[in-house]
Amino acid sequence: MRRFQSSTVSDGAFLLLFIACFVSIVFTAADPNLYVQNIIFLNLAFLIAVITYFTNVTTGLILNILFVFGYGTFTLYQTVVAGSLVGTQNYFWLIMTPVFTIATWLFTMASKQLQIENEDLKKINSSLATMDESTSLKNSLSFQSDATVFMALSVRYNIPLTLLVLSVKYWDEIRRMVSEEKLMEAVHDLSQIGQTSIRTNDSLYLLNRDNPTWGMLLFTDREGANFVIDRLKSRVDLLNSTEYAQKYKVELVLKIGAVEYNKEITPTPVAFIAQAKKQLEFDV
């Protein structure tokens, strides 16, 4: 509802600004004898509106007060000294200049509100999203939910559960040598290797995209996880000698940490990840 109101105000302000421009241009062109004078006042109105856009409505109102005071002095001078009559010309710019300022302020205020709401929506979407858009893998939020279920199943049915955490060795150095586009391709390719190296009842997650870290939940014991580790490393070694050598110009090497679920040691998904990450230190 709030977003709808901001959008309505923005559209209304833009329409008002468009109408004000149209009316001012028609009025300026209507009397050739006052063309230069009207052009000057039109430019002043635009200038105050632009300043209001980049500052705030208070500044715009102060400038409008100064304009009214200056224009009133100018009109008084024309009436007393030059003997001119007070007509439509004298009232038009006293009305239109504040209209420009108010329309610009409303448009600016509504646009900024829409930008804030858009950022809030992005943050909410990011916090609720359970899948990484570039790799189509489940993310850390999904891992929290799935790991809780898998851990409960492991305890209830006495099924061994092992978590593998994978990262790329020397990633910071690689980032300096490879373009961002190639880095994202590398993350995608390594994700595909991980996806094809596990069984259908196991799960793969992208826990960290910036410093690529994957998590694998395997229904097997620690010894059985070694087969998956060997399979992963052999496939990456094979690709390093063929595709990766030409594609990325650097060697991509996986670091893998593994820990078997123990209700006492890793009672929560966060503790489960923390224990697995500790094992990465031993994979040198």
Automatic annotation (TrEMBL):
UniProt xrefs under InterPro entries: Rev_trsase/Diguanyl_cyclase
Q: Which Gene3D superfamilies does its entry note?
A: 3.30.70.270
Source species, domain of life: Bacteria
Keywords linked to the UniProt accession: Membrane, Transmembrane, Transmembrane helix
Q: Where are the transmembrane segments?
A: 12-29, 35-54, 61-85, 91-108
Q: Does the keyword Heme apply?
A: no
Asked if the record carries the keyword Transmembrane, the reply is yes
What is the protein named? Answer: GGDEF domain-containing protein
The organism's lineage is: Bacteria, Bacillati, Bacillota, Bacilli, Bacillales
